[in-house]
Design brief:
This protein is α/β, with parallel strands linked by helices and 201 residues long. It has 6 helices and 12 strands.
Length: 201
């Protein structure tokens, strides 16, 4: 049973549909008890960092997220959900992130030939072993939509990288916390394999 945290961000229902396609019972909620009773929790979403943090705090979800992580419940951040787990973002430099993981979210540099936002498919390299990627070959392609990217403080937690004008930390894993900048729910069979690995953790 997987709870998907609802904080009025975009693209939440597509995650729910992907999990249900895999046979997983999944529901979208911001109810504290329903989140805490779940076997797994996902923080998905697209949107602006500062606005998202305001809504998370306004709905009282920051404390719930911390409790889920502290309990050891498998937790997955997707796209904006990855960014919110870190300390700060260039997008909203005055707003503190959740700070559950150490690192910062930077704007993709304006390099010739690279459109921002990045919208499309990129291949992954695996600098460290990650449970989400079990059985998924290196150089698999996944779908990105973003203008900002993660630079984790500890590269030991980085389980996938990609290149788009700079090296992007595309996925991380630390204990029970997992996150990916790309959208597994939009990444065809590769993405479904990643979600299947998550619901088996």
């Amino acid at each position: 049973m997987t709870a998907i945290i609802d904080y009025d961000a975009g693209n939440i229902r597509s995650v729910e549909k992907a999990l249900q396609f895999l046979g997983e019972e999944a529901y979208v909620t911001r109810d504290r008890e329903r989140i805490l009773e779940a076997d797994r929790v996902i923080l998905p979403g697209v949107g602006a960092f500062g606005d998202a943090m305001d809504k998370i705090r306004g709905y009282g979800l920051e404390e719930v997220i911390r409790e889920v992580v502290d309990r050891g419940t498998p937790f997955l951040g997707i796209c904006l959900g990855l960014q919110l787990l870190f300390e700060r973002s260039d997008e909203s430099s005055e707003v503190a992130g959740l700070g559950i993981l150490e690192g910062e979210i930077l704007r993709i540099p304006d390099n010739a030939g690279f459109k921002i936002p990045q919208i499309g498919w990129n291949s992954l390299k695996y600098p460290n072993e990650g449970r989400l990627f079990a059985g998924v070959p290196e150089d698999s392609y996944v779908y990105f939509v973003h203008s900002y990217y993660l630079k984790a403080k500890d590269e030991g937690i980085v389980t996938a990288t990609t290149e788009y004008g700079t090296k992007i930390h595309a996925s991380v894993e630390k204990g029970n916390v997992f996150a990916c900048q790309f959208h597994p729910e939009k990444s065809s069979d590769v993405g479904l394999a990643l979600l299947r690995n998550f619901i088996r953790i």
